[in-house]
# Entry
Amino acid sequence: MNRLAAGMALMLAIASFVFPQSRDALELYRAGRYADAVETTLAELAQDGRNLNAHTVLGWSLNALGRYDEALNYGMQGLEVSRYDNRIIEIVAEAHFYLGNNDDALRYLAEYAAIAPTGDLIDEIYNFIGEIYLRQEMYQHADIALTTAVFHNPARSRWWARLGYAREKAGDAVYAREAYNQALQRDRDLLEAQRGLDRLANG
# Structure
């Protein structure tokens, strides 16, 4: 090994000792180790409060843990760093959704759809919108939102069942039956869809 290579190896060794590599928070999140991801991202944010990647993984992990108040709190801090980061907007919208804050959730969900109409989570966005409209008994609105959700992700059997339910409640039996059948094509054991078809048959 020449002097230059030896010197570089020594510098790397010193750097790895002084600045040990932190665990990869995203990999922890993907592995389902949400509490560890929270711990890691909080440490990262303590060093750099403007780290949007840390804000993002923190929010995802808190929502996954059902810690929605915290996800909302940190999400709003993330929006102070970058008001229109669609990842943070989705985190805030999801937290509001699970906290039952329907109007706030709809506002942020609509923002995501406007900012990132082809974003990675656009299918989830429209599913959340549809579920909120179901809560509000606005069944035709729910139909439109859930139809958009399954357009973006047709593999989700339960979304098809929820679409069937929206159409059933709107009085559209023909298309409700179609949606329930689409759900059962993807999961023949899905009770929600089977019961929907039973209701239509006995109605």
Confidence is low (pLDDT under 50) at residues 4-22. The CA atoms of residues 42 and 168 lie 45 Å apart.
